[in-house]
Design a protein that fits this description.
Helix content is about 30%, strand content about 30%. It is α/β, with parallel strands linked by helices and about 240 residues long. It has a single domain, classed as 3-Layer(aba) Sandwich (Rossmann fold). Strand 1 and strand 2 form a beta hairpin. The longest helix has 15 residues. The N and C termini lie far apart (about 40 Å).
Length: about 240
Amino acid sequence: MLEIKKLDLNYEKHLLYSITGINLSEGDKLCVLGKNGVGKSTFLRALIFDKSKSNKIIINNKKLNDLSLSLRVNYFGLQTQNNIDTFWGTSKDFLQLSYAKKNDNMKIDLDSLVNDFKLEKIINSRFNILSGGQKKILSIASIFIQNPYVYLLDEPLANLDFFYQKIILNNLKKLKKKIIIMTSHDLTPVNDLSSHLLLLFKNSNYMFGKTDKIFSSENLRKLYGVDFSSISLNNKNLMYANL
């Protein structure tokens, strides 16, 4: 269980949002939507790094403020949009760094991960010569190695081809006993994955709720300032922007 009773999001000492009343349980998948620069990435980072005593966040009956950073990273795994370009080892070396403790089962676990994320062609390649999309796949795979309780993913589908987008979504769907919080400009994870939405509007306004309750063309129009339409497919209303 993750409860955000109060979370003030600040950027350069400027209050962006004061968020309250977010409750997520195991298996819930929250997608955070909003324009560029509204604070989506700030929201993810705050769940790990914020130290304000005025904020009240509860994870599995523990107050986040009472947990040191080293304990917080046991609960949260964060994937960011920034690729690591200075790592000189192989893809396999990069993934092995994510194991907190090497053990006899590491090879089995790593082989399974390579298969799940279809990394066979790049696992022995030098990390620094890979494309940005390939580095992102490895970055997301490394979070699965860490096996946190809450997965924090910053635009996990951005700059990925459709093949790897499907790979990421399929692996996220397997996480039945985890909580996933992701940001996105792509509506694919909303249409295909999310159980809840957090819509970050301008002027510090926000909306939180179940996807089937607040995912509407009207709310998206207010959020992005463009019109949206929907089509019905497999008993789902899929949204797309009228560009």
